Amino acid sequence: MKILLLTPEHPLQAPIGKGSSIGRNVEGLAEAYARMGHEVRVAFPCYRPPESMDGWVAGGGVRASFLKVEDVKIWTAVYGPVQMRMLRHPLFERNHPYLEDSGWDHPDNALRFAVFGASAILDCIKDAWIPDLIHGNEWQSGLGVLYATTFFKDVLNSPRTLFTFQDAAFQGLCDARWLPEIGLGLEWLAPDRLEFWGRINLLKAGLVCAERVTVASNHYLQALLEDHHGYGLEGLFRQLGAKVQPIPPGIDPGLWSLPFDPCDIEEMRTWKARQRKQYAPGTRPLVSYASPFIPEAGVEHMLTVLPDLLKMDLELGFYGGENSPQRKHIETIARMHPGRIHLLPGGEDNLFHLLSASDMILLPAVHQPSGTLYAKSMAVGTPCIAHRVGSAADRIIGYPNERADGFVFDGLAPDTMLRILRKALSVRTNREEWDKIQGRGAGMCYFWDVAAAQILGLL
Question: Do 2-246 and 265-444 have matching folds?
Fold first, then answer.
């Protein structure tokens, strides 16, 4: 099967796409599709001219007749088993991909991402590479899905369509005056199409037009159906019903795999002890926190309980958040408590080292529909203590369930977090029980191959 993935972000968009969870997810999914034997293309816009075009080849230009703009230049590259298509056009190249310097959306985002979606499809048609499946990601790809099911439906032989989004808070709202500029008539300015309080909503384009829609967790999907969590789209999500399905994102099997059978508890102990000695020497339990140090990831809650954590007989590991005020604050505290706090810079290798060396990880996320940190941690035998949100709420079986592979808590009050942490530390002293919790978590399969098979199974 030929699969076209549309994405607004990808790690090849350095530096913009390098740390993008959307980009990493699409990268992992594309590689999983390819491992399944499918022929895969990934298309994304170029927001900033690359410092080097090494490895990229100019592939000509395309232009949609219904969009009154000059040709979009297509640059191609091979990235592992996947064909990459970078779309270059003056409309795309901005300091920030989606926002003006003032913080408001670019007023021409509707045109920009109409050009992206239409051009990515025309690139396939020009090469006579007709996709069997078009999988759009995020609101920026919504119009691409719409065009695939309308203007290009016949020439594409009615392709299957999928649409995936992480967070319904980001909807791509634009002035309705852009409708004729993006080739759409006033019939699209209707509540069951793109209209949203008098404006057009590009997220709705993907939701309404795609054959199937996926979100990252059932927990988040249920929240979207509630009046106070759906960002004004609760009625639409209820109307879509079973068309929207929860499928947790995966993790990279090349990095997040143990070098031994996860059922081998003795080997697990030896390996984790070796990792601990190498990256955070000490004998007290190592409790870690990893995040970009943003409010949604619960960094403020970590800072609130930090004085209490330092009173406990444990050591702390922190990853990420370089140059943030919170990170600098923790660095100052670390100097006052030598040997108690270990700080690692960003990078997946460093994250692997910290998680594999840790005894447990705290995940006090406030809002994280599609996080995969819990999966990465459990995959290397490190149980999570997680707030019940997003994918973690779906996947972690909380202690004292007889099938427990971690710990979950409701509410972010400091006493609640500390109580469940103390419970986890107490359980850790029971070696046999802790071994079972570690083994169950490490024995689960969180990889992209599973997620890819589930996604394609919806069609």
Answer: yes
